[in-house]
């Protein structure tokens, strides 16, 4: 528990490196919602293979790393199906309407001091904090 | 070349999400839960990720991407209703489940049925987003 922040920093560095490779290599902004969403709505048809290759890497690396890791790797997601479905819909719709999520607006946007990235990040963090306050502490749902 | 670079980038992204603990919904919700047992890990992940990206943006000046083409045209620094409404909806969903698009993909192999249902719902939402965005545009434009 005490080393969580070190692993956070190391993992964060890898995420930033991933964004740097995507930008300097392919000339594209690494945003998870954009990469997935472009496959769903067809707007990324011309770059479908590189999107799929990216997602393959995202899925496979944790599978390779899992046996090397001796701590619990569960996601601890809630078992309330209604909450899971509502959350998934909101994340999907919201990230695409806003044209970015934690990786695109958060990591790639803030690092170039983008006004849109910073404002988006402030709003989704405030909304997330409010959601926890209401649904956990007031309603006791999550 | 582009496909290999994408695979490399995705692998680094997946490894980063995994070791940082960001696929654990308790850590993400712990960061957002200022009235509960607050967990600062996410701030370190964000900080750690922003540092390499800061230098990457500086390296784009006067260069072209390794795989050819051009660097993306950056959107004008304008705030609109899509950015604000979309971010609020995304934030509520992110808080409710503790998952966002990247970690939901990274945890597919061990996220269980809950992770799969989240992923399916997210894909449905992404499919509906263009239509919903058009409705929002109509509402935002004074008649």
Automatic annotation (TrEMBL), chain A:
Claim: Cell inner membrane is one of the keywords in the record: yes
Membrane topology: Multi-pass membrane protein
UniProt key word Metal-binding: no
Record Pfam families: Sulf_transp
UniProt-annotated location(s): Cell inner membrane
Keyword terms, alphabetized: Cell inner membrane, Cell membrane, Membrane, Transmembrane, Transmembrane helix, Transport
Transmembrane intervals: 6-25, 52-69, 81-101, 113-135
PANTHER family tied to this protein: INNER MEMBRANE PROTEIN YEDE (PTHR30574), SULPHUR TRANSPORT DOMAIN-CONTAINING PROTEIN (PTHR30574:SF1)
UniProt record similarity statement: Belongs to the TsuA/YedE (TC 9.B.102) family.
Protein name, entry field: YeeE/YedE thiosulfate transporter family protein
Source organism (scientific name): Sedimentitalea xiamensis
From TrEMBL, chain B:
Classification via InterPro entries: DUF6691
Annotated protein name in UniProt: Sulphur transport domain-containing protein
Transmembrane segments: 41-61, 82-104, 110-129
Alphabetical keyword list: Membrane, Transmembrane, Transmembrane helix
Organism of this sequence: Sedimentitalea xiamensis
Domain of life assignment: Bacteria
């Amino acid at each position: 528990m005490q080393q969580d922040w070190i692993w956070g920093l190391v993992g964060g560095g890898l995420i930033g490196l991933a964004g740097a490779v995507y930008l300097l290599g392919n000339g594209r902004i690494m945003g998870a919602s954009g990469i997935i969403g472009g496959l769903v709505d067809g707007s990324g048809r011309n770059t479908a293979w590189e999107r799929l290759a990216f997602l393959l890497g995202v899925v496979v690396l944790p599978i390779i790393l899992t046996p090397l890791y001796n701590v619990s790797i569960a996601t601890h997601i809630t078992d309330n199906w209604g909450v899971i479905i509502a959350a998934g819909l909101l994340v999907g719709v919201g990230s695409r309407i806003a044209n970015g999520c934690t990786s695109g607006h958060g990591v790639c946007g803030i690092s170039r001091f983008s006004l849109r990235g910073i404002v988006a990040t402030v709003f989704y963090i405030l909304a997330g904090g409010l959601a926890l306050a209401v649904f956990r502490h007031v309603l006791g749902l999550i | 070349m582009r496909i290999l670079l994408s695979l490399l980038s995705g692998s680094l992204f997946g490894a980063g999400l995994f070791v940082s603990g960001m696929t654990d919904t308790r850590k993400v919700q712990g960061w957002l839960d200022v009235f509960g047992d607050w967990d600062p890990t996410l701030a370190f992940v964000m900080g750690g990720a922003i540092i390499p990206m800061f230098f990457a943006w500086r390296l784009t000046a006067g260069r072209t991407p390794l795989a050819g083409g051009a660097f993306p045209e950056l959107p004008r620094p304008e705030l609109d209703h899509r950015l604000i409404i979309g971010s609020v909806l995304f934030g509520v969903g992110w808080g409710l489940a503790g998952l966002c698009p990247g970690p939901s993909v990274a945890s597919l192999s061990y996220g269980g049925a809950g992770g799969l249902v989240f992923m399916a719902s997210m894909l449905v939402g992404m499919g509906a987003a263009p239509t919903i965005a058009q409705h929002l545009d109509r509402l935002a434009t004074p008649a």
